[in-house]
Write a structure and sequence with these properties.
The protein has 271 residues and is of the alpha/beta class. It folds into 2 domains: 199 residues, Rossmann fold; 47 residues. Helix content is 35%, strand content 15%. A 7-stranded mixed sheet has the order 3-2-1-4-5-7-6, with helices on both faces.
Length: 271
């Protein structure tokens, strides 16, 4: 990691900081484009204060570095030029007051208590305060697979998967439930989930387009390999009738899909 800017900044910090070794490349990838810019960066959970100095070194003197912690002792870092807010990240009223006082944020990094409630409430409370082209990043998401951070069915990674499902529902071909338009995309790394904010792109309608170039009248072979020749042979005389019955067509697709799942043992990827 000798060529990692974030790791170098981590080593330069004059106070103790704890980070997983796999995080530094992720920091470089996600936060690198913001270096040297006058951004507002918020870190939830500052413990011994070392990470505040790390981020100042990494982003540069133009950056506004803000720390959030439950421990009132963290206010001592204000003397070093950092803004410190004391409060609970699972308290929605705290976040409302924080957003009113701080204004728009470019990057929020959640390295707080890591419980599912804390992580989810932080995301839901601060999404609207992240600037376009900004990031809301939650780290230590491996707690979703550990005991003691909340009920498994409400884990942060399950919450993230739900958001991913709703992002994909922006497609014009899917319309049976509300779509997610606050988040443009979700990027997952080991123990880190990054939410990218781009409201114009998130709001733009997603429709099927064509480049209006000449076609070659190619046949659509997507579903040919899924046809069981035995079924086709038996059912061939009934095709003219069945093709006019939507319910029968849906049942046929369901049976083909089920057979395909069984044939390739897709269930082994969901254990």
């Amino acid at each position: 990691m000798n060529d990692s800017p974030s790791f170098a900044a981590y080593l330069e910090s004059p106070y103790r900081s704890l980070k997983h070794s796999s995080y530094f490349r992720v920091y470089d990838t996600l936060f690198g484009p913001y270096r040297g810019r006058a951004i507002t960066f918020v870190e939830v959970g500052i413990l011994g204060g070392g990470s505040l100095f790390m981020w100042r070194s990494f982003f540069g003197p133009q950056a506004r570095i803000i720390g959030v912690d439950l421990n009132p002792n963290a206010r001592k870092w204000e003397k070093d030029g950092f803004e410190i807010f004391i409060g609970s990240q699972s308290d929605t009223s705290f976040w409302q007051d924080f957003a009113r006082k701080v204004g728009p944020v470019d990057i929020l990094l959640d390295d707080g208590g890591h419980t599912y409630a804390q992580q989810i409430i932080t995301v839901e409370s601060m999404l609207d305060s992240i600037r376009d082209k900004g990031l809301l990043v939650v780290e230590d998401t491996h707690t979703s697979y550990l005991q003691g951070y909340g009920p498994e069915k409400f884990s942060f990674m399950r919450y993230s998967q739900n958001l991913i499902d709703r992002i994909n529902r922006r497609s014009s071909l899917v319309s049976d439930s509300p779509a997610e338009r606050r988040i443009w995309s979700v990027q997952c790394f080991e123990s880190i989930v990054a939410f990218h904010i781009n409201r114009p792109e998130s709001a733009a309608p997603s429709v099927v387009t064509t480049n209006d170039k000449p076609g070659d009248d190619a046949q659509d072979f997507r579903h040919r390999e899924r046809r069981d020749p035995r079924i086709v042979t038996v059912a061939r005389p009934l095709v003219p009738l069945l093709r006019h019955l939507p319910g029968i067509r849906r049942a046929g697709r369901w049976l083909r899909n089920r057979a395909e799942l069984r044939r390739f043992r897709i269930d082994r990827f969901f254990r």
